[in-house]
Amino acid sequence: MDLPGQLSSLLRAGAVLTGDDMSAYLQDWWGRQTGSALCVTLPKTPEDVAAIVRACADAGHAIVPQGGRTGLTGAGVPGAGDRPPVILSLSQMRRIRKIDAINGSIDVDAGCVLSDVQSAAICVNRLFPVSLGAEGSCQIGGIISTNAGGTNVLRYGTTRENVLGLEVVLPDGTIWNGMKSLRKDNAGYALRHMFIGAEGTLGIITGAVLKLHPLPTAHATAWVGVSDPELALRLLNRLQSCCGERLTTFELMNAEQLEGVIAYRPTVPSPIDAAWHLLIELADISGPELLSEMLLASLEAAMSAGEILDAAIAQNGTQRDNFRALRHGTADANRHIGHVLSADISVSVSSVPRFLTAASAAVRTLYPEAQIVVVSHMGDGNVHFAVRFSHGDWGSYDDPAGTVIAIRTIVNDCADALGGSFSAEHGIGRKLIDELRKRTDQAGYQSMHRLKDAFDPRGIMNPGCVLGEQDQVS
Amino acid sequence: MDLPGQLSSLLRAGAVLTGDDMSAYLQDWWGRQTGSALCVTLPKTPEDVAAIVRACADAGHAIVPQGGRTGLTGAGVPGAGDRPPVILSLSQMRRIRKIDAINGSIDVDAGCVLSDVQSAAICVNRLFPVSLGAEGSCQIGGIISTNAGGTNVLRYGTTRENVLGLEVVLPDGTIWNGMKSLRKDNAGYALRHMFIGAEGTLGIITGAVLKLHPLPTAHATAWVGVSDPELALRLLNRLQSCCGERLTTFELMNAEQLEGVIAYRPTVPSPIDAAWHLLIELADISGPELLSEMLLASLEAAMSAGEILDAAIAQNGTQRDNFRALRHGTADANRHIGHVLSADISVSVSSVPRFLTAASAAVRTLYPEAQIVVVSHMGDGNVHFAVRFSHGDWGSYDDPAGTVIAIRTIVNDCADALGGSFSAEHGIGRKLIDELRKRTDQAGYQSMHRLKDAFDPRGIMNPGCVLGEQDQVS
Do B455 and A453 touch (CB under 8 A)? Predict the structure, then answer.
């Protein structure tokens, strides 16, 4: 029997798709199809996943684990290759297994959608803090496998910091049960951290125990205009000194980015006229008045010190939603505008202004016509640095692909020079494997290979992702 | 040339110790010597460390990396064996390399003493939150290698959550430079997490970038008496709902433990008479009066609800120090009293009362004469569960070693039954390798071996620690 037939016999009816039924599973977030698959499998349980992996392992056949397909570097969809892989979609595994408010933990299937987990936490008066544009469709297994960031990292860390335990099907088809709900556990190596951020190349996450936090019920939100990022940095420092952990969000964008959002969503007005804009949010367990006073006092002091041009504090929920919509609308707006090269770099928070100055100057030297579009999770040092050309059409360049690579190199070099990273929150996927090879210290790169070879010696787990195609794939 | 001679030729004069000069380096925290060493090396730089490792690797000779020797499971001192290892002490590497207050990061040598790092952070108005009894002598490399916990985990996480980057000499003598100061970095596998908590068995940490937090300047501290742990849990839930992240410390001990501390440090009086005692602390960036009011209001509400018997809020710094001294004095008091079997288990926070009931009943059934001494980081689910016999002298038992093992098994079985861990914060070392083998899910245990074999195929890095003696050591 061929492999799809064999897999069908292992699973319930309708759990293996082939032909045109696969089309949705082959497209990435941009709606592009970059490769093909032998079949798509839709397991319901960890045991189903293990059975699929064992069958593929026996056949030496590659597997691409797939979540909500919202990743931006192509880890969850197949690349081009001679031997199309089996897609293993976790989308049918979306049970919330257990929730323990006092312990601050929730046990979920890997296919749960992020926003469903957020809602379940709120029902027991707790917060699951990972929040990002794709939260309505991205899945828990996906955000763990890419160690997703988002807009709350400043206060709550990345996804990694919010995972207590994992259940993983290893490349040999055995199930590792690491579903611990513990805040402290030093019983041997911390295996879960190997799988977090590994983009499905070391095993398939089927379940997770996530950390919940006290639910803030008081918020204070402001939109602030500044003349340059250096002054934004001073404001950040001021807010951290005055407000401590209450500071949840500190997001920077330039006027070009804001214009793009408003052009795409003209119903939301720009609150302030400035070269650089900040969305700032404080949150606390209680005391909304105190929180607003604290934010107001800090912003007044910043105004007196000449750090900021103007500020608007949201007076009600609608205003707050409007401010947030301006920030959260960036990804959709940029996708809509299209032809935007985007780098996802990080540097130390204190180096963000220096990075912006250096990268802008370097790009403009080579491409004076370039428009630079910046949106940055400044509070955690992550900058999405995009370059756009007014005519928009790459076809007018002699070598569009070469131009993309040239600009990416310039921008990532600037991050490197400041001890930064060329991949802050989007991961490597299939798109940045050359950058990883080029920019990782040699001992580190060899160690990554050592890890991959130890856990997936035949290279069947998401080959072509992170470390590139494995030689061992038969 | 023999290996000590060869190492001497690689290092500065006086950097290799032999004979009686080694004695201090062979003793653990209890002052016991459990094994011997070929020599002790005292490198000054990562390059020194790399040179020592290369020489040992060439000779196939085992290395025991050593920090402040405050570990409680023997990872940092040699065990017994036919071929004494080379001790590599990081104690001469104690430079603070860099500090960046705005980024909230500090770069240090692995040999820096924890309290020196805490002080350096305070100098720039920041907090390094890891705090534990041994902070005056334990070293950064050691607390990272054991993923130390302590009394602030409830709010700030374990050491792991406070490490941004690492520099590690790998078992082949190459240096991995992972000294990144980034809050977000998804460029490939998160190698640092492999080495954190690995107890020196995968490589030697020579430097680290640590995360700093806003420095709380307001504190409110209370000593609270409760009649049983179930009511303590209700109080914890109440405080988390009312105070959110301000709740920094929630430590439980029973009257037997408190009596032991007071007997050892009679200058500090017991604030309250109760079967169970709690040290509770709130901290905030500012507003000590608000914080005291918040704590008072919560405790008054708890009193009205019948959750607590009595409470004393510290009225000044001396009182606060006295309350803290009662908690921090437990380790020294228990060491002084001696003959105390101590388990370091964790369960979900909500299961702490159930664990205490089950473990106490199980021990008392077999040993009715046992005195049970409990001190617990209840806020993070970690319980130090000790058993003492009034006559103190193990010699009076037919089989003292067997009794130790029997009690440990009973207590750890109770943790297991609740999905807990037999090693919450002390690690495995040389003391708990059989427990790890016995209590780890098979796929997980095999994965640990796979990791060890991939990074240290010859088993020269701290053999006999975590996974037990490696067959491969030549």
Answer: no
Q: Do B188 and A241 touch (CB under 8 A)?
A: no
DSSP A186: -
Which residues share a beta bridge with B278?
B224, B252
Return per-residue pLDDT of chain B as tens, 474 residues.
899 999 999 999 999 999 999 999 999 888 888 899 999 999 999 999 999 999 999 999 999 999 999 998 889 999 988 899 999 999 999 999 999 999 999 999 999 999 999 999 999 999 999 999 899 999 999 999 999 998 899 999 999 999 999 999 999 999 999 999 999 999 999 999 999 999 999 999 999 999 999 999 999 999 999 999 999 999 999 999 999 999 999 999 999 999 999 998 777 777 889 999 999 999 999 899 999 999 999 999 999 999 999 999 999 999 999 999 999 888 888 877 766 678 999 999 999 999 999 999 999 998 888 899 999 999 999 999 999 886 555 545 667 778 888 999 999 999 999 999 999 999 999 999 999 999 999 999 999 999 999 999 999 999 999 998 754 433
pLDDT-derived band of residue A471, with 50, 70 and 90 as boundaries?
A: very low
The total number of residues shown for chain B amounts to 474
What ipTM was predicted for this assembly? Answer: 0.95
Nearest-CA distance from B73 to chain A in Å?
Answer: 12
Q: Do B184 and A377 touch (CB under 8 A)?
A: yes
Q: What's the predicted TM-score (pTM) here?
A: 0.96
Nearest by CB: A189 against B181, B182, B197: B197
Rounded Cα distance between A378 and A281, Å, is: 13
Nearest-neighbour CA in chain B from A364: distance (Å): 26
Angle between helices B255-264 and B317-328 (to 10 degrees): 110
Q: Which residue does chain A place closest to B161, by CA atoms?
A: A161
Count how many Cα atoms sit within 13 Å of the Cα of residue B111 in the half-sphere of its side chain: 16
Strands B126-127 and B204-211, sheet pairing: unpaired
A197/B443 Cβ within 8 A: no
For tokens 């196939």, the residue is: B60
Q: Do A346 and B185 touch (CB under 8 A)?
A: yes
Classify residue B27 by its DSSP letter: B
CA distances to A404, B103, B188, B194 from B146, rounded to whole Å, are: 45, 26, 24, 12
Taking CB atoms and an 8 Å limit, are A187 and B439 in contact across chains?
yes
How many A/B residue pairs have CB atoms within 8 Å? 277
Q: Quote the mean pLDDT of chain A.
A: 93
Rg, chain B, Cα only: 23
Rounded CA Rg of chain A: 23
Which residue, among B98, B182, B213, B445, would best test binding to A if mutated, counting the most A CBs under 10 Å from its CB? B182
Mean pLDDT calculated for residue range A234-260? 95
- Subunit contact A187:B420, Cβ cutoff 8 A: no
Residue in B174, B187, B189 nearest the CB of A423: B187
DSSP codes joined into one string, B423-462: BSSS--TTTSHHHHHHHS-HHHHHHHHHHHHHH-TT--BS
Burial (0-12, 13-18, 19+ Cβ within 10 Å), A330: buried
User: pLDDT digit string (tens) for B140-155?
Assistant: 999 999 999 988 999 9
Give the tokens for residue A363: 């790009």
Chain B residues inside the 8 Å CB shell of A425: 184, 186
A67-89 pLDDT, tens per residue?
999 998 889 999 988 899 999 99
* Rounded-to-integer distance, Cα B341 and Cα B324, Å: 24
Q: Residue A363 carries which DSSP code?
A: H
Predicted pLDDT at A395: 46
Contacts of A153 in chain B (CB under 8 A): 183-184
Secondary structure (3-state) at A178: strand
DSSP state, residue A240: H
- Helices A330-337 and A255-264: angle between axes, nearest 10 degrees: 80
